[in-house]
């Protein structure tokens, strides 16, 4: 690598660290126009384009790096695999890239772990366990990062194959792993502790389970330094209500005849959104789109400061963004969409309903709801990323956020009562067919009994619930909070302070 290129890499890295990715990308593009043989420059450009959400351009840059003999090509194949899997929904291509990485370097731990995760998302349990077993069996792993990833494999394997009793040696193995994971960072240790809690929960050892979950969440808080700010959460709710005080004018272009229209599924995390999307995916008129980040990324980056930037309706801008969204969705399905709807199941899109209704005035929104104590507990027992759910590691914070979510949803429901359907998870598990008949009536679709066979679908599910939706409908998650009732006073108190009726297990306001 020349001194010139090395200096440029350092300068671009500084720009990237400072959040100036666009400038860094421009620098690389200028250099590579002059020095197209600079393979490392192509790699860095691909990495930056990936971070900017410019996925096809990133794939092209990574391909150029491979063509020019980049060092450690297995890392490039890994990055390409992640783009195909996480962002473009092209799982076969992702598998080819991960296997290419392992062909180059059979000991490449990140590719082996990602391959296992890909199998999990596709519902291929045996193949996933086989991938993780190869990493768990590794003895001579010297690199600390790889050691941590091997512990991640143990955690994921334990989630797939839980012990049957307190005497199972897997529990002792996980306890030891939780101690050794401390030197590999909070993410690894948290994942091992969450897996340990999951195993204890499955055998009914709820005290040990809660202790493990609590340790993991404390680890999250201690090492990330991210704390939920209730004042900012309240201010965001108020800003949304100020920016969208009334119904938007219907000025958007109608969807082309025969084209699938977006159907938004949103609500609190862990409220059943993945389940209901999987149910809908079993209907011939619905294409499952999964969790799309387009609107969240748009609001956070191009429309910052949101929502103040969109307080006034701009018809031309909204039409442009709506078209960009449609193009983004079309790019995820190169073989084409089928049916009436394509789902966008990003739970925190509930924040953007006012904006969504500007872009797509005829959009329908399925709002997933659940018993507040069960919902809050499930958030606490799941390792959610603090970037999207900073409240998730503290029961009181979860309760406060739940109150803000309900306050904003009441506002949207007041503005768009005909467009928002609240789907009650607990009612669904008690009476599946009657609950679904109401949903399909809202969607103007005929009820199809086949949708209750959702667990037999061979699609890919990319959320924390991917194994739950591979099972027939079960009701054990309703009322789960009772197993942990003695620990939930902070959640209960925060919910009640927010006006949520927890005594009756309802999500309405207290009188």
Structure commentary:
This protein has 22 helices and five strands. Residues 504-511 have low confidence and may be disordered. It is mainly alpha-helical. 56% of the residues lie in helices and 5% in strands. It has a domain at 261-497: 3-Layer(aba) Sandwich (Rossmann fold). Strands 2-3-1-4-5 form a five-stranded parallel beta sheet, sandwiched between helices. The longest helix is centred in the last third of the chain and has 21 residues, at 395-415. α8 runs antiparallel to α9 (144-160) and α11 (186-202) runs antiparallel to α12 (206-224).
Q: Topology, please?
A:
Blueprint: H1 3-17, H2 21-34, H3 39-51, H4 55-67, H5 73-87, H6 91-104, H7 109-121, H8 125-136, H9 144-160, H10 169-180, H11 186-202, H12 206-224, H13 230-243, E1 261-267, H14 273-281, E2 286-287, H15 294-302, H16 315-332, E3 341-344, H17 353-359, E4 364-369, H18 372-380, H19 395-415, E5 420-424, H20 425-430, H21 432-442, H22 489-497
Helix pairs in contact: 1-2, 2-3, 3-4, 4-5, 5-6, 5-7, 6-7, 7-8, 7-9, 8-9, 9-11, 10-11, 11-12, 13-19, 18-19, 19-22
Number of strands: 5
User: What is the architecture of the domain at 261-497 at the second tier of CATH?
Assistant: 3-Layer(aba) Sandwich
Quaternary state of this entry equals: single chain
The average pLDDT value, as a whole number, equals 89
Structural class, please? mainly alpha
Distance linking N and C termini: 70 Å
Topology order in helix (H) and strand (E) letters = HHHHHHHHHHHHHEHEHHEHEHHEHHH
Detail the poorly predicted runs: 504-511
CATH superfamily of the domain at 261-497: P-loop containing nucleotide triphosphate hydrolases
- Overall, the morphology is globular
What fraction of the residues are assigned to beta strands by DSSP? under 5%
What fold name stands as the CATH topology of the domain at 261-497? Rossmann fold
- Under the CATH scheme, which class of the domain at 261-497? Alpha Beta
| Major sheet | 5 strands, parallel
Number of helices: 22
Binned, the helix content reads 55-70%
Q: What spatial order of strands do you see in the largest sheet?
A: 2-3-1-4-5
Rg calculated over all Cα atoms: 24 Å
């Amino acid at each position: 690598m020349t001194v010139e290129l090395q200096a440029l890499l350092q300068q671009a890295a500084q720009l990237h660290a400072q959040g100036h990715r666009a400038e860094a990308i421009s620098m690389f593009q200028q250099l590579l126009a002059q020095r197209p043989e600079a393979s490392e420059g192509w790699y860095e450009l691909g990495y930056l384009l990936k971070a900017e959400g410019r996925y096809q351009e990133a794939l092209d840059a990574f391909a150029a790096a491979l063509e020019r003999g980049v060092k450690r090509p297995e890392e490039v194949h890994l990055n390409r695999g992640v783009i195909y899997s996480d962002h473009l929904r092209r799982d076969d291509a992702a598998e080819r890239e991960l296997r290419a990485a392992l062909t180059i370097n059979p000991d490449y731990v990140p590719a082996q772990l990602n391959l296992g995760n890909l199998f999990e998302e596709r519902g291929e349990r045996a193949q996933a366990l086989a991938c993780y077993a190869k990493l768990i069996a590794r003895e001579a792993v010297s690199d600390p990062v790889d050691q941590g990833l091997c512990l991640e494999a143990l955690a994921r394997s334990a989630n797939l194959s839980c012990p049957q009793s307190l005497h199972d040696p897997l529990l002792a193995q996980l306890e030891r792993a939780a101690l050794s994971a401390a030197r590999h960072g909070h993410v690894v240790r948290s994942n091992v502790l969450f897996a340990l809690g999951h195993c204890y929960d499955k055998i009914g050892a709820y005290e040990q389970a809660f202790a493990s979950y609590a340790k993991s969440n404390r680890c999250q808080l201690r090492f990330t330094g991210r704390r939920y700010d209730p004042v900012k959460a309240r201010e965001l709710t108020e800003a949304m209500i100020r920016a969208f005080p009334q119904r938007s004018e219907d000025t958007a272009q109608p969807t082309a005849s025969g084209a699938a229209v977006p159907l938004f599924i949103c609500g609190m995390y862990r409220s059943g959104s993945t389940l209901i999307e999987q149910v809908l995916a079993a209907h011939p008129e619905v294409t499952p789109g999964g969790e799309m980040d387009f609107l969240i990324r748009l609001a956070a980056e191009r429309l910052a400061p949101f929502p103040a930037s969109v307080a006034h309706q701009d018809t031309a801008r909204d039409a442009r963004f709506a078209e960009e969204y449609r193009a983004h969705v079309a790019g995820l399905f190169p073989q084409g969409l089928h049916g009436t709807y394509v789902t966008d199941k990003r739970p925190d899109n509930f924040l953007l309903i006012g904006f969504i209704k500007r872009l797509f005035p005829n959009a329908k929104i399925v709002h997933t709801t659940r018993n507040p104590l069960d919902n809050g507990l499930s958030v606490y027992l799941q390792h959610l990323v603090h970037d999207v759910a900073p409240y998730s590691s503290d029961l009181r914070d979860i309760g406060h956020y739940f109150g803000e979510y309900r306050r904003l949803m009441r506002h949207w429901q007041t503005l768009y009562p005909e467009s928002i359907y609240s789907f009650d998870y607990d009612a669904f598990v008690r009476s599946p067919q009657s609950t679904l008949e109401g949903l399909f009536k809202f969607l103007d679709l005929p009820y199809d009994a086949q949708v209750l066979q959702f667990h037999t679908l061979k699609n890919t599910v990319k959320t924390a619930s991917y194994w739950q939706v591979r099972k027939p409908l079960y009701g054990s998650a309703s009322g789960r909070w009772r197993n942990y009732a003695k620990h939930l006073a902070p959640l209960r108190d925060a919910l009640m302070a927010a006006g949520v009726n927890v005594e009756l297990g309802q999500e309405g306001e207290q009188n």
